[in-house]
Amino acid sequence: MPALPPRLRGLSSRIYLAFLMAAVIPTAIAGIIGVYYSQQALRQETLRNLNQEVGLRAKGVGRFFEQFSTDLLTLAASRTLKDLNVARVQGDQEKIEAAVRRLETQYSIFARNYPHFYYIRYIALDGRELMRVKRKNGEVFTIPHDRLQDKSRRYYFHAALKLKPGEIYISPMDLNIEYDEIEKPEQPVIRFATPIPDQDGKVQGLLVANLHAQVLLEHVQELSEARAG
């Protein structure tokens, strides 16, 4: 077979290259588009599943907060708190001390039912704690009266006093403060507070409970580990 002239051989190469490009470029573009839409579909499916899981966990935390708030309101309506307020109005120190001891016993029982519980205290209108119960490392104990603190400068104290009896204030998550300094090691907490009225409906103080923020953070950690970060 006679060889093609150089001009025809060059034309043949260009035609071959043109057909090759015509086949390769659309295929490559189609592949890129397919990969892109596959990634988008996978991303959307992952986000949909993640949103569902986050929603379920949020509902679970919400139910826990509702139960804890209900229990706190039950404590706020106790006869012992009413007796304490009456004794304080009367200035009867013996009755005040007796009521405080009963509260410490009641709140100690309450604290044992919540693994994430940290503190519960009754704070008077001047910001002074009248009693405090603490749970640490599974042990529940009362704070000595000479170690009680003035919380009148804390933001949650003023925010909760604006509520009506029967309402619950829930603070943002932040670090626990002890004696005007951040507690060491650092303890992220969430505070629940409700006003305590006297027999005439006038607010006499606040019942404040601290929960370890781990009740929220452990859900975030579990999600992160399950999704490889």
Walk me through the topology.
Elements: H1 6-76, H2 79-90, H3 93-111, E1 117-124, E2 129-136, E3 139-142, H4 155-161, E4 169-170, E5 174-175, E6 177-178, E7 181-182, E8 188-197, E9 203-212, H5 214-226
Antiparallel strand pairs: 1-2, 1-9, 2-3, 4-8, 5-8, 6-7, 8-9
Fold and architecture overview:
With 229 residues, this protein is of the alpha+beta class. It is 53% helix and 21% strand. The protein has five helices and nine strands; from the N terminus they run αααβββαββββββα. It has helices at residues 6-76, 79-90, 93-111, 155-161, 214-226, and strands at residues 117-124, 129-136, 139-142, 169-170, 174-175, 177-178, 181-182, 188-197, 203-212. Strands 1, 2, 3, 4, 5, 8 and 9 form a seven-stranded antiparallel beta sheet that branches. It has a two-stranded antiparallel ribbon with strand order 6-7. A hairpin with a 4-residue loop joins strand 1 (117-124) and strand 2 (129-136). The longest helix has 71 residues, at 6-76. It is elongated, with a radius of gyration of 33 Å.
